[in-house]
Amino acid sequence: MTKEELRGIDAIAFDLDGTLVDSAPDIREALNTALEEAGLAGFELDTVRAWIGDGPDALILEALREHGLGGSEALRDRLRKSFDAATLAAPLKFGSVFEGIAELVAGLRRTLPMVVVTNKPTQLARAVLDAAGLLPAMAGVYGADAAAQRKPAPFLLQAAARQLRVEPARLLMVGDGPADLLAAQAAGSPAALVAWGYGGHAAVAGAAPAWRVATPQQLLLTARESRAVRRDEETTTTRFF
After folding, report:
1. Dihedrals φ, ψ of 16, to 5°?
2. Contact assessment for residue 16 and residue 141, using Cβ atoms and an 8 Å cutoff
3. Which of 92-96, 128-132, 221-225, 226-230 has the lowest mean pLDDT?
4. What angle in degrees, to the nearest 10, is found between the helix axes of 24-37 and 56-66?
5. What are the backbone dihedrals phi and psi of residue 113, each rounded to the nearest 5 degrees, phi first?
């Protein structure tokens, strides 16, 4: 995405885990707490980090498969309740906001409206954002509260665009993994793939090329420059009309 293309953006949708916050340690803690309460062994951080992206139900299913279990619906429900309770008790005790994100959000807050679009359920997402100090800057939080809403489905991005009263084509999806890019493509939104997250280092099969963002500072500076040029263009147009 060029600066010229970014001038056509009216709002930004951020993924949460792996994009705004390094929450893998907290997700691991919540998952292992749930598993241990059910008499099952927990997993190392690197293993859990590789499973992040599709929400807690998918995470729990991966853990059960690793144990050689399909898991009954009752067991999955029990694990999910324990996972949610552990997350709400300590949303960001072990993880942290990625370096540069606080400055990015503070800078963009004066430039573009922002929302969070995540496969984490809304209640859990809001708790993490609140613990991170990022919640007040967000115009909305769109979590996947049902399986059909999860990215790569476009549902959450489309809902955010409606609430923001912008066209999906003018809502930039910023994320770190395949689900973010594919959801943006399905919604007709441009996408940016961050380099600092959990899955932003490889091409995504079936997804349109994304703007590769190396640092939060790069996104902030590019957005500021692009919006400044856009304001100058709008002022010039107003003078003539």
Report:
1. -105, -75
2. no
3. 226-230
4. 60
5. -70, 145
> Which of 62, 61, 53, 55 has the alpha carbon at shortest distance from 181?
53
Average pLDDT, the chain: 91
Segment 86-96 mean pLDDT: 98
Task: For the chain, give the number of residues.
Answer: 241
How many other C-beta atoms lie within 10 A of the C-beta of residue 8?
14
**Amino acid in the structure at residue 129:** L
Peptide bond into 113 cis (omega under 30): no
Ordered structural domains, the chain, with CATH: 3-22+96-240 (3.40.50.1000), 24-89 (1.10.150.240)
pTM of the model: 0.92
Q: Name the DSSP class of 17.
A: B
Token pair in block for residue 160: 């955010």
Task: Please state, as a whole number, how many other Cβ atoms lie within 10 Å of the Cβ of residue 162.
Answer: 10
Over the stretch 161-191, which tens digit does the pLDDT of each residue have? 999 999 999 999 999 999 999 999 999 999 9
Crossing angle between the packed helical segments 73-89 and 122-132, to the nearest 10 degrees? 20
Q: Give the SS3 label for residue 188.
A: coil
15 in active site: yes
Encoded tokens for 3: 């600066």
Tokens of residue 221, six digits: 């500076």
